[in-house]
Specification:
Layout lengths: L6 H18 L5 H16 L2 H39 L1 H6 L9 H19 L1 H11 L1 H6 L4 H19 L5 H10 L3 H27 L8 H21 L3 H5 L30 H13 L11 H33 L8 H23 L4 H20 L2 H9 L3 H8 L10 H10 L6 H15 L9 H15 L3 H16 L9 H8 L3 H26 L1
Helix pairs in contact: 1-2, 1-19, 2-3, 2-17, 3-15, 3-16, 3-17, 3-18, 3-23, 5-6, 5-8, 6-8, 6-15, 6-23, 8-10, 8-22, 8-23, 8-24, 9-10, 9-21, 9-22, 10-22, 10-24, 11-13, 11-16, 14-15, 15-16, 19-20, 20-21, 20-22, 20-24, 21-22, 22-24
Length: about 550
Amino acid sequence: MDVQLTAAHWVYLAGILVILATMALRKNIVVPAVVATFLTALTFSGSIVTGLSAIFNASLVAAKELFNFFLIIAMVTAMLGALRQLGADRMMVAPFRRVMRAGTSSFLVLAAVTYVISLFFWPTPAVPLVGAVLIPVAIRAGMSPLSVGMVIAICGQGMALSSDYIIKVAPGISASAAGIEADAVADKAMVLSLIVGGTALLITYLVQKRHWRAPSPDLLVEWEAAADRGIGDTADRGIGDTADRGIGETREDSSGDGGGSRPPRRPEPAGGPSGGGEQAATATAVLVAPSDPIADPDSAAEKERRGTAKAFAMLVPLAYLAFIVYLMLGKFTEVVPPLQGGDAAAIVGGIAALILFAAAASTDRGGFLETTSDHLVDGLVFAFKAMGCVLPIAGFFFIGNPEFAGPILGISADAAGPAILFDLVTTVQSHLPQNAFITSFGILLIGLVAGLDGSGFSGLPLTGALSGALGPAVDVDPSTLAAIGQMGNIWAGGGVIIAWSSLVAVAGFARVPVLDLARKCFLPVMAGLILSTVFAVLVF
């Protein structure tokens, strides 16, 4: 297929290279992404008005595509805030301490649970479930927030989604584009996904273990109290110093509160309520260094509070367990209708909202309407503070996707947008030498580049079609090449090494900068992809 490259293609390619170079230098890439968006739109349209409009439109389109992740982060964060105010958060995670006693056991449990749920139901509902129930336990057991995020991303968005062995949407797309059987692609993709995931998990364990600490209840308090400050500071800089050290290691003031009475989430009115960052700082100060007297553990009010906290500590895991059962019934029976990924995530958010309302009403019966609103606002502020810088970055890469390029460039809805990124990939493949190893790694690279738009499966028709065309020419089974291309496309765009993807949800629940999380996942995942590609050529 001959593709005529224009000046806009070359400007877009230059923008990609500048962004990758900026990431390699550990600098924030928002400014390069915005400038590249402007120049690409200007070059394509020849109009400075379109170029300026594209800066706004690109972020707007990205916000529409990613807002579901922002919203679910906000709802679950708000729910956890209400449970923390009630004192139910520590009680909720107590039963898991029997298994997740230290970093290694927590690492294994997180990996297994995330993989199984994601394999059957996709990572969309898996991340909120694990984030709401198991992440606090792993933090308390000594794992660093960054390593928690890496495990969930590798096992969910990576290992489970790249094979998609149960639902088989991805193998079906790859196989139909290559003109082969879906099962042939699915079987090989499963093996390759385990190789990539196993390699990435092993490297993650060896590298991140030195950041883990001895299990302690104080770690959970530090993680909760320092989350806003840690993510905001490092996200602004684009450097992962805080995440690398572990949140607890940056703090000198620990509450030492081992679980008893919790102070109110917001201080009593001494000077009136504060707003914005001042409010967050005050809330953090209350959590870290409570000045209120500890309630009498034998008082009737304290006993009632503990009983309520214990009820909610049981309610939250049971509610999400019931949801998992509902998902399984929909998947394997006809008792209830099956849920798609987006519907499942919406239900997770709805459950979180109802629990938030109930917990706030139990804590503050007279003013729970205001308290609930405060928690929701805090959740939204946290989500946008942590993940907001992703929007202009995603907007640049969305210009390369014809599905999103039209609205960004102001093209009529009836006309197709330019496929700038796919045109570049198609041009590259036409220059690949006719060699099994080179072709296989070329398909892997094309899958990785096609995944730069962060949309997951968008590059599968391209890698599948190329596999069907190039496989016979280099004496490689097309299903092998299709599985290799599927690995590259989903491990990149599915949400592991691309920050402007569903990785924002993982980073939000782990409370680490999304750019740091993507950067730390890059080398383990790339090592796994290279190893799996070599294995595929030699064995398959």
